[in-house]
Amino acid sequence: MKGTKRSAVILVALVAVFLGAVGYGQSQSPASSAAAGSGQLRQVAYLKASNPTEDANFGSGGTLTGNAGNSAAISGDGNTIAIGAPHESSSAKGINGNQNDHSLFASGAVYVFRRTGNTWAQQAYVKASNPGQDDNFGSTVALSSDGNTMAVAAYYESSAATGINGNQNDRSIPQAGAVYVFTRTGNTWSQQAYVKASNTGKAGGGDAFSDGDQFGYSMSLSDDGNTLAVGAIGEDSAATGINGDQADDSAMGSGAAYVFTRRGGAWSQQAYVKSSKTPPNAALFGYSIGVSGNGNTLVVGEYDADRGKGAL
Asked: Could you tell me the CA-to-CA distances from 212 to 152, 163, 257 in Å, in that order?
């Protein structure tokens, strides 16, 4: 599939999500939903964005490798699908804004589809509350088991804010990264939190790939939606273990992971996680990440551990 110009998302009942490989120069990408029955697959839906445009990368992700990573998610009950289009170019903000605008290249969008009976329909067109050019909102998406909580990463977002619900209008650190949490009540979606790292970094820091830490390069959500894990491959601290020195900048691109929890609708950072050994430059800890269904176990991938061998 390497080098293909179109990508697809195949959803297999309640079992797994498979993403088609994406090459360079992608254009419009469809998503197909397939159900399993009697040991065979059958296609039940063909999903497209409500505003398809060339190179929007609907369903094809926006990560470093160009692969269709986690830009599509399905709820545990199989009735809600979220699909990212990180190169969608509207300047709209929030929920169900102007889809016909094309003034903000690669600001990104997410499309939420819901199944009623056997029929799929688009429920929401979702944008960041602070869309910016090249932010790649929708590069990674995650859904809770019931489909009522959704996390969306924009790993090229450029605010210097830290923590929860900080200054979204700042654009001083290119590729700092951000995660947005949305919740659904009935059929209505709204943004619940704007999530940033506790040590967003600094512009021109000389990271492995960019100015910023690329917070949101990887992301995972627990089944109940109350635990969020986020990877930042460009983070620069030489700290090790849990809650070490976040102010250190001596290990460029060593990477970090952050764990956030929600209580009573309010989010807070629970842990700052680094590799257990002193990281080398460009270790890319946080390249992949996963949190268990109950939110009590975290796994973090390090892409360049021991010079390209990788580690978990």
From this structure: 18, 16, 15
Q: Note if the pTM is more than 0.70.
A: yes
CATH number of domain containing 246: 2.130.10.130
How far apart (Å, rounded) are the C-alpha atoms in residues 59 and 142?
A: 13
Render pLDDT for 180-206 as a digit per residue (tens, 0 to 9): 999 999 999 999 999 999 999 776 554
**140/240 Cα distance (integer angstroms):** 26
User: CB atoms < 10 A from the CB of 39, how many?
Assistant: 5
Cα 168 to Cα 146: distance, rounded to the nearest angstrom: 29
Residue 38 lies in a domain: no
Residue 212 lies in a domain: yes
Residue at 131: amino acid letter = P
Distance (Å, whole) CA 52 – CA 30: 9
Question: Bridge partners of 143?
Answer: 150
Q: What is the residue whose two structure tokens read 């269904």?
A: 293
